[in-house]
Amino acid sequence: MSKKVLITDNVPKNVPKTFIIQPVAVNYSLPKLYIPKDKNGKATVKRPWHVWFNYKNPETGKFDNSSKFKFKHGINRYKTVKQRKEFGLRLVRVYSHLLDEGYNPYTKESSEGFHLIPKEVTCKDALQMAYEQKAGDLAQSTQKDWEYRLKKFLDYAEAAGFADFNINDVTTFHVASFLNYLAESGQGPKSINNFRACLSGLWSKLANDTVAMSNPVTVLKKRKENPQKNKPFTPQEIAEIKNYLLDNDPGLLTFIRFVAFAFLRPVEVVRLTVGDIDLKNNRLSVKTKTETRATVRIIPQLAEEILKMQLEKYNKTDFVLTALDVPGSWTAKENTRTKIFSDRFTKVKDHFGFGSEYGIYSIRHSFALDLYNSFIADGLTTVEAEFKLLTITRHKSVSGLRNYLRDVGAMLPKDYSKNITLDF
């Protein structure tokens, strides 16, 4: 019988606190997963598995032959030991929770209150339910994205005739067919992988809640992406872009200076509010792509630009940069706000004849490359330069930063011509 420890405080100060051990009645044993073994003592799928526990017989008040309860819930449909263990342990957690909440397998009323795996939950109802439950944990932009991708999948499911299938009858084949349909419709690998990630997240939710027996998406490999990365501009090109913007679009120049001097992403720039700027301590706070907040140093070049904006005249909730090039409210969505500045930069690219491999990110790359080369010129080793740059660019790891520097051309080897001895 379990014991409960109580601490009483109503005793004199000079007397130690009293511990009272009070027995508490326990009507059940902890649920366990039964794993059959072969002759070598290894788990086998050739014999049925189940989750079991004992529950005290209410008539005798004892654990007897009738007090052992077994539940399978489709566990033996899984073909591998790993799959059965994963599903079985989820069942153990569910039953442990239910028993703790008062579940009694002897009473019909109690049993009717618990539905571990609904027998007839359709594909469309299950996925919609999973989305509604996860939506609160997603960023607003991700919510809209998943809502769109789920609708696209359910529209396909309706057309293909499996939207009303039991969720456990929708297999990897159905999801793979949908992803292939997207490819045939002209969707690129990155977009298809985003659909895959959305569906996998929803099915994982269903599997964790034991609504679905498994996640049919995980076995589908991500499609190989070959994204076109932005190339950095040369110092001469940077100077030409600056002069052009001074004459033709000074508001865009201000926007780009936040990218260049604070190493912000364009979407982070449009998120900035007046209240995020702290000129007294030369720092700003910005919401990153992971929806956390990062603190970034304001260097003198950027502070000079910010002072011109006279932010003290505006509300703290006003956006620092808007389509009107002055702080203010802006109800457009983040993607729309970012696109407006991106479209304005397209005019700059067209003027100079820059191709699709250049964008606002190219400015960020240019300044990262310039900083790295300056650190090396100051006598820092490559490792010292990397660690110094890591805090500025806010990469998560040195390896990630090295890959980035390699992509923008900062990791070029020194001239090795004198070491070549072959005459060719």
Q: Which terms would index this structure?
A:
424 residues, 3-stranded antiparallel sheet, elongated, single chain, mainly alpha
Summarize the structure.
The protein is mainly α. It has 14 helices and eight strands.
Task: Describe the protein's architecture and organization.
The protein is mainly alpha-helical and 424 residues long. 45% of the residues lie in helices and 9% in strands. It has a 3-stranded antiparallel beta sheet with strand order 3-4-5, with helices on one face. It has a 3-stranded antiparallel beta sheet with strand order 6-7-8. Strands 1-2 form a two-stranded antiparallel ribbon. Helix 5 runs antiparallel to helix 6.
Topology:
Blueprint: E1 2-8, E2 18-24, E3 32-34, E4 50-54, E5 68-71, H1 81-100, H2 108-112, H3 123-134, H4 140-160, H5 172-184, H6 189-208, H7 235-248, H8 250-262, H9 266-271, E6 277-278, E7 283-287, E8 293-297, H10 300-308, H11 334-352, H12 360-377, H13 382-393, H14 398-407
Antiparallel strand pairs: 1-2, 3-4, 4-5, 6-7, 7-8
Helix pairs in contact: 3-4, 3-6, 4-6, 5-6, 7-8, 8-12, 12-13
Mean pLDDT: 86
| Structural class based on helices, strands and sheet pairing | mainly alpha
Low-confidence stretches: 1-9
- CA radius of gyration: 31 Å
What is the general shape?
elongated
Q: For the terminal residues, how far apart are their CA atoms?
A: 88 Å
Give the strand line-up of the largest sheet: 3-4-5
Beta-strand fraction estimate: 5-15%
User: With helices defined by DSSP (H or I, 4 residues minimum), what is the helix count?
Assistant: 14
- Secondary structure: number of strands: 8
